[in-house]
Design a protein that fits this description.
Blueprint lengths: L42 E3 L4 E4 L2 H14 L3 E5 L7 H19 L7 E7 H4 L6 H11 L4 E6 L6 H6 L15 E4 L2 E5 L5 H5 L1 E2 L2 E4 L3 H16 L2 E3 L5 E2 L12 H36 L3 H9 L9 E9 L4 E2 H12 L5 E6 L6 H9 L3 E7 L16 H18 L6 E6 L5 E2 L3 E5 L8 E5 L5 H6 L2 E8 L2 H15 L2 E3 L14 H10 L4
Parallel strand pairs: 3-4, 4-5, 8-17, 14-15, 15-16
Antiparallel strand pairs: 1-12, 2-9, 3-6, 5-10, 6-7, 7-9, 10-11, 12-13, 12-20, 14-18, 16-21, 18-19, 19-20
Helix pairs in contact: 1-2, 7-8, 8-9, 10-11
Length: 513
């Protein structure tokens, strides 16, 4: 995130009211979360295709291996690509793989599509754009670089707001990395910190062509309404497309909504047809239809025991699926259900706070201590950002204590010397279970920005498989082991002192981070 404290009081954001859909649990279905498929496509897979990673180094090495072995497609969506040596090594891997594809017999089928945020990717003289231009120049027919520009940054506002501060208005925040039919979902960006000592979450979905197709189409849809990077470092829109900040805002958002919803709707239709064919063939004792569906996806598959639901949130385009699903999960969580929720930037929306404080489930909320906040020790105004988060955390903790909810709602702070903390998501444990059956993983932070300003995507992973549940449980335990429980004495420590001006400014600008 960026420095925003000087800018934010100038702006007055809208505060739309969202009503969550009714929860239609399916007690006789394969699992109780099948209601999610009323909103998004449901992808049934084998749990053996899911691998949970634990470290930045593992994530980085996997990216390089996957790039080097890709044959058909590389699709990467991130906030930005860094400019250091590790990032250059990734670009070199892409160049090497593209070069091999040209040397192979016959026409090359490999396509590389990269989606980044325009403002973050254009910051500084050496930036994401300059890192990628050599690929565009060398492989113009195979490489596409799209730079999303929020339609809310336009006119006088765009002229007046300086670099870094302009990122507060809205960003492309989705992080998905896919290679042929393998998909990595994460909250990590393509930057050296995320490859070394910034803790995040990472899940690999192997041999999952339908999921890879969905995210390829999603990135293509956003790319189509984004600025296209040219070989001379200029940008231009695709022919006939409305410009995000020069064209009509309403027309642009309507086109973007239509493109993204077409991806979601068509994937839902495909999956529903596949479900219907499978059910029909099983009822008739005839496997021909299901076999044809399986062959189309690369061969016969085992019966699914794990279900993937992509949850998209793009409030600038009027798309709020992730918000509705998250609110419904929190609303419907029963007594003795345990929810472990983590975010690197603790700034929950009012709706999420009300649900956590007003429902019956137990919550263990993991957040960053000031020392592992990404802005800790920053110069200038940015150096006050960790203090603003401390102030927000203390206000929430005070509300928990006022309602006598300390046993049910517990805050824990991640602390690890030499590291920063960026993990986000949740794990849901049903009453009486020692293992989670659902996790959310992706880019949202559960804050105002994630819900209202940025483009976000995560997946709900629901599984009945004990081995995968144990993987997810170990992931949760590993993160929470590096934490301490927050109490009243936490805020009496010298490093928790918040200056008066930060207390006064924070309520005015909290909707910008």
């Amino acid at each position: 995130r960026s420095s925003w404290l000087l800018l934010a009081p100038l702006l007055t954001p809208p505060v739309p009211v969202i009503a969550a859909p009714p929860c239609s649990l399916c007690p006789e279905g394969a699992h109780r979360f099948q209601w999610i498929r009323n909103l998004v496509p449901e992808f049934g897979i084998s749990s053996s295709h899911v691998k949970v990673l634990s470290s930045p180094a593992e994530f980085y090495e996997l990216l390089k291996v996957q790039i080097k072995t890709a044959k058909q497609r590389v699709v990467m969506a991130s906030l930005y690509l860094g400019t250091g040596l590790l990032e250059q090594e990734l670009v070199d891997c892409l160049e090497e793989t593209l070069e091999k594809s040209l040397q192979a017999e016959g026409p090359s089928n490999l396509r590389v599509s990269i989606l980044l945020d325009y403002t973050r990717g254009s910051r500084g003289k050496k930036n994401s754009r300059t890192m990628l231009i050599p690929l565009l120049q060398r492989f113009p027919e195979q490489v596409r670089v799209s730079l999303f520009h929020t339609p809310n940054l336009r006119g006088l506002l765009r002229l007046l707001i300086p670099e870094r501060f302009n990122e507060t208005i809205g960003l492309q925040h989705i992080k998905v990395y896919l290679f042929d039919d393998d998909v990595i979902l994460s909250g990590a960006n393509l930057s050296d910190l995320y490859f070394t000592n910034r803790q995040d979450r990472y899940v690999l979905l192997q041999d999952s062509p339908e999921i890879a197709d969905f995210f390829t189409e999603l990135v293509d849809a956003i790319g189509d309404v984004s600025l296209q990077l040219q070989r001379d470092n200029t940008v231009q829109m695709m022919e006939g497309m409305v410009h995000p900040y020069q064209g009509d805002k309403m027309a642009y958002c309507e086109i973007a909504n239509r493109r993204v919803m077409e991806v979601i709707s068509s994937a839902r239709a495909r999956q529903e047809l596949l479900h219907a064919e499978t059910f029909h063939s099983s009822q008739q004792g005839n496997s021909s239809l299901s076999q044809r569906g399986s062959e189309a996806c690369g061969g016969l598959k085992p019966e699914p025991d794990t279900w993937i639901y992509p949850l998209i949130q793009m409030k600038p385009f009027g798309i709020q699926i992730d918000e509705m699903v998250t609110e419904t999960l929190l609303t419907e969580a029963e007594r003795d259900t345990r929810i472990y929720l983590t975010t690197g930037y603790f700034n929950l929306t009012q709706a999420y706070m009300d649900l956590i404080l007003g429902t019956r489930a137990e919550y263990r909320i993991l957040l960053a201590s000031p020392e592992v906040n990404g802005f800790f020790g920053a110069k200038g105004v940015a150096g006050a950002i960790p203090a603003a988060y401390v102030y927000i955390e203390r206000q929430f903790y005070s509300e928990v204590c006022y309602l006598h909810q300390q046993e049910r709602v517990q805050l824990q702070e991640y602390s690890r010397a030499g590291w920063t903390f960026h993990a986000k998501g949740l794990w849901l444990y049903l009453a009486g279970s020692d293992l989670p059956c659902l996790t959310l993983i992706g880019s949202p932070n559960f804050g105002y920005r994630s819900v209202h300003r940025d483009l976000e995507a995560q997946v709900a992973i629901v599984t009945e498989n004990k081995a995968l549940q144990q993987q997810l449980h170990r992931e949760q335990e590993q993160l929470y082991l590096c934490s301490g429980v927050v109490s009243s004495s936490t805020f009496e420590q010298p490093n928790r002192y918040v200056k008066l001006w930060v207390k006064l400014v924070t309520p005015l600008i909290k909707n910008f981070f």
